[in-house]
Amino acid sequence: MSTTETLATPPPAKPTVEPLVRLEGVKKYFPITRGIIFQRKVGAVHAVDGVDLEIFPGETLGLVGETGCGKSTLARVVMRLHSLTEGKLWFDGRDVSNIRGRNLRDLRRDMQMVFQDPYASLNPRKTVGSIIGAPFRLHGTIPKNKVKGEVQELMELVGLNPEHYNRYPHEFSGGQRQRIGVARSLALRPKLIVCDEPVSALDVSIQAQILNLLEDLQNEFHLTYLFIAHDLSVVKHVSDRVAVMYLGKIVETAERDSLYAQPRHPYTGALMSAVPVPDPKLAKAKRRIILEGDVPSPIDPPSGCRFHPRCPRTQSLAKEQGLTDEHGAPLRFVPKCHDEEPLLTDQGPGHTAACHFPIDTRIIPVDIDTEGPGASP
Amino acid sequence: MLRYIIRRLLWVVLVLVVIVAITYSIFFLLPGGGSDAIANRFAGKQPNPEIVAEVKQQFGLDKPIYVQFYIFTRNLFLGDQYGWPGLGKSFVLRAPLKQVLVERMWVTIQLAVGAAVVWLLVGIPIGILSALRPRSIWDRAAMTFALIGISMPVFFIGPLALYVFVYKWHILPGSGYSPIGEDGLWQWFNHFILPWCVLALLYAAFYARLSRANLLDVMGEDYMRTARAKGLNERQVIVKHGLRSSLTPLVTVFGLDLAGLLAGAVITETVFNLPGLGQYAVRSVFSLDLYAILDVTIIAAFFVTLANLVVDIVYAFLDPRVRYT
Amino acid sequence: MPEPLLEVKNLRVHFPTEDGIVKAVDGVSFAIQPGETLGVVGESGSGKSVSFLTVMGLINRKSAIVEGEVIFQGQDLLNVPKEELQAIRGNKIGMIFQDPMTSLHPFYKVGDQIAETILAHEDISKKEAGTRAVDMLRRVGIPRPDERARQYPHEFSGGMRQRAMIAMALSLNPDLLIADEPTTALDVTVQAQILDLIDRLQSEFNTAVALITHDLGVVAEHCDYIQVMYAGRLVEVGTADDIYYQPMMPYTWGLLKSIPLLTAQEERLQPIRGLPPSLIHVPEGCPFNPRCPYVFDRCRVETPQLLPVDGFHAAACHLSLEDRKRIVEQEVLERT
Predict the structure, then answer these.
(1) CATH homologous superfamily for the domain B98-318
(2) Residues of B with CB below 8 A from A34's CB?
């Protein structure tokens, strides 16, 4: 069933173009230290723990996962706001893993960030004009007397009234402030824009305006987006490809349609099932997977597959097989998931997942009249 | 927790050593300082080189500065011939400093603690009542009082109070110190009540504003709404949920304020002629009494660093989110 | 129809400010039956939270003008003495809030905070209240509840704190639970856990629930009845099926069209144009008229009343029912 689905809409041929961003074995650990006079390392937060990822020019890569899964840290590593603990980062064909100083500054012209909280990310004491114009002044790309004109052009572009050049952020609504953030990020015509939960603080009717704006700008300027969100329906709407992250690792990547038609990793399945569906009948027909507990601590992540303590798939497999531990108590996981770390393996064209026992059931039925136990006529 | 306290105490020692070093440097590098100048000063009206040399030897000023510094620091922590801690000898009194400092510290402690009681009892209730009725007549009056209190310097309000209560109305005895053991409780209290109130005024005003601001902040917290939603009555909501979290930050401020005063309330002691540490500090500076200056500085530093430690420990008990390892 | 548990009649909550009067709630009437779940949907500033904070008496009456009636089990909560209101809060009506991080007092142990609620309403020993608090923590699915009861809120994760809040709100088996955006600050996976828990406890305790949210998905999955609020007014009420399959108010259409769906393939979202109105200068006539694509002259002068469509379903719109049915068929439902 799933294969026919994915074949019916063939995914675009694997791009032969060079990726704009490439990560290879990227790790970011934050050391935990003890001691007041002498600091000694007692452990580390494994925020990003071996990530391979490619982002191609002009595409939108959606990055999803729960709070604490490392997605924001990964974004900051890509932006080189954090240094890499290990691994390599290429941007536009250049190894930028260890560059610093002037080179790093030049690199930052090509990548910009849009933040989640439009209230906290704009300096309340600066006018909108000077906020949006700051990148010009910092990088000195255009003469000073042209900054104002350029800024007003940008304001127009993102749907702000250029006459409001001298207003302060508090005079704008949340959606308008997010437009200011977008305009600022566009100032230097970057190649990559990292959007860190850009719409999750906005009201629903405003969310759509910002999502459409980002889409228009991408088409106009051939932008590449790394789009981070916890809302799978927003990610579905904006992304060409999606990467799912759990406890510092990528557990599944796929073309958007392939992923949503058939998630392979049980974690992706659980995330998808958790999204509330604004359709009462469909909601009743949907497969409900409720994950237990919270994301474990990234200081001491679980062995084997990091998801195994919460994984509904390994639980049901262990139950089916009647597995027990040495005391005869039922096991809550299959030993393989506990002992062996799964690698990202091919699950179909452009689709990889890191799971020993990938799922093959749909989460959201396609047609509720024929599928789903709770469907009503 | 114990390990934390030990580590912090080691810090206190380190800070004291650094402070001694800095005070030494200032003393010897400033114009009018230096071994020769001091020795000259204490060598009588017509100093000749022999007497100066003798004075230098007597005072221990003949050795290089770093040796002097070493001996002083060693004595401080390990004790000298007058006992522990080794506080040295006064050039002016030609006598051990310990006795003098202990007497003067006792006066300062009475002044500072008494004033602290007054400002806590006055400032915090005013602040709380203001916060409970924001923008009311009471609130406006209280905050006007606070503003005046903060802007009144002790050297103005002190003499004014003396003039009114002592010289005009004759309801209080004059300035000076009246030890509780010699003249009895009533005399002692009568002599202290004015300095307490004058010294407390500024702090009371400041604490009123601080506790008002803190409580107003806390009143807007989500957990206050939760407390009301639980069905607690307003008194429980304010006393148990509001005051605890709004007054906890005052612990930090109070610890440091009190420590600062324990090192000597210079102006108050001078105005009311109280023989405290602050008064002594000023005197020692004018008379270039090296060890007295060092001792007073060390006592001040000791109180402040110790207060910091005590505040941090108390805070950890009051706020469970703060834990030390 | 049986006696409603809660009946709100023509509620108005206005806050006088220096810039003018903020009409946060402006003439809202609704009822909740025992045991049912009412979903209240709206964006920020729609008045959904303020109206329920008023029900709980958590709006400072000194800074607000409150008019209307809030009849709960036969008593008008707007006019009962303070002591009686305190006896109802936490006891007959429980409430949980958006941010579980800040809703618990950081200085007190979680178990003690729950016990405090019980002690405020029942004359039992502290020890007994403590035991019941642990029992409540167990019922909301907190593992090792006796150990957890002795911990402070900062030792709990967001989801666990919201569970603790629910335990507190339900500790006296209230007849009504008001959940004000209970999952907005949480991850989707934890949101699913919490909503599931509320569903389960609701049937266990037979509590009526008012679920306030901006998420149309959450109400679709969990509510029997839904009311949509805009600019301090109710603009549409109905069953979940009414609101999702037969919406009769352009604002509801706008909401449904502007959210990205997990289930549909759309090229472009259709946002509602413009911004929500200022509550000081609410537009004349229909409050939605400046943003409504179907606006006509009457909308700008006359405020539409909430009129029945069929059965329980009602909407406030001047368009004729036929026109609205046609628009729904042609433009709104095509997505799914």
Answers:
(1) MetI-like (1.10.3720.10)
(2) 325
Distance of alpha carbon A338 from alpha carbon A357, whole angstroms = 13
Is residue A215, in this structure, part of any structural domain at all?
yes
**Amino acid symbol at B142:** A
Query: In which domain, by residue range, is C272 found?
Result: 245-335
Residue type at C170 in one-letter notation = L
- Chain B residues in contact with C89 by the CB 8 A cut-off are 228-231
Residues 222-261 of A with CB under 8 A from C: 230-234, 236-238, 260
Q: Among C244, C271, C276, whose Cβ lies nearest the Cβ of A209?
A: C271
Dist CA B206 CA B143 (whole Å): 10
Asked whether residue A177 is assigned to any structural domain, the reply reads: no
Q: Among A116, A176, A205, which would you mutate to test the C interface (most chain C Cβ atoms within 10 Å of its Cβ)?
A: A205
Domain CATH number, residue A341:
3.40.50.300
Shared domain check, C57 and C23: yes
* pLDDT one-digit tens code per residue, C160-185: 999 999 999 999 999 999 999 999 88
Strand bridging mode A21-34 / A86-91: antiparallel
Closest residue to C221, CB basis, from A176, A206, A276? A276
Within chain B, all domains assigned CATH 1.10.3720.10 are found at 98-318
DSSP alpha helix (H) spans, chain C: 48-55, 82-88, 100-103, 110-121, 126-139, 145-149, 158-170, 188-205, 216-222, 240-245, 250-258, 297-301, 321-327
Distance from CA of C218 to the nearest CA of B (A): 23
Residue of B nearest to A36 (CA): B7
Please give, rounded to a whole number of angstroms, the shortest distance from the CA of B316 to a CA of chain C: 11
Contacts of A173 in chain C (CB under 8 A): 275
Please give the Cα distance from C45 to C53 (Å, whole number): 14
The 3-class SS string of A322-334 reads: CCECCCCCECCCC
- Closest residue by Cα to residue A111 from A179, A187, A199, A50: A187
Low-confidence ranges of chain B (pLDDT < 70): 31-34, 324-325
* Cβ–Cβ contact A46 with C under 8 A: no
Helix (H) or strand (E) holding A185: helix A174-186
- The shortest CB-CB distance from A205 to any of C215, C254, C268 is to C254
When divided into structural domains, chain C yields a total of: 2
For residue range C50-64, what is the model confidence (pLDDT) as tens digits? 999 999 999 988 889
Would you tell me how many other CB atoms lie within 10 Å of the CB of residue A3? 11
**B7 contacts on A by Cβ (under 8 Å):** 36-37
Residue of C nearest to B319 (CA): C107
Query: Is the pLDDT assigned to residue C89 strictly greater than 70?
Result: yes
Judge: B232–C116 Cβ closer than 8 Å, yes or no: yes
Domain membership of residue C58 (yes or no) is yes
Q: Mind listing the pLDDT tens digit of every residue in chain A (377 residues)?
A: 444 444 444 445 555 688 999 999 999 999 887 765 566 778 899 999 999 999 999 999 999 999 888 999 999 999 999 999 999 999 999 999 999 888 998 898 899 999 888 778 889 899 999 999 998 888 888 888 889 999 999 999 998 999 999 999 988 888 899 999 999 999 999 999 999 999 888 888 888 999 999 999 999 999 999 999 888 889 999 999 999 999 999 999 999 989 988 899 999 999 999 989 888 888 888 888 888 888 888 889 999 999 999 999 999 999 999 888 888 888 889 999 999 999 999 998 889 999 999 998 777 765 444 333 333 33
**Which member of B8, B11, B325 has the closest CB to residue A34?**
B325
As to burial, measured by CB atoms within 10 angstroms (0-12 exposed, 13-18 middle, 19+ buried), residue A178 is buried
Residue of A nearest to B6 (CA): A36
**In this structure, are residues A27 and A52 in contact, taking their beta carbons and an 8 Å threshold?**
no
Query: Which residues of chain C neighbour B318 with C-beta distances below 8 Å?
Result: 107
Record: contact C266-A236, CB cut-off 8 A: no
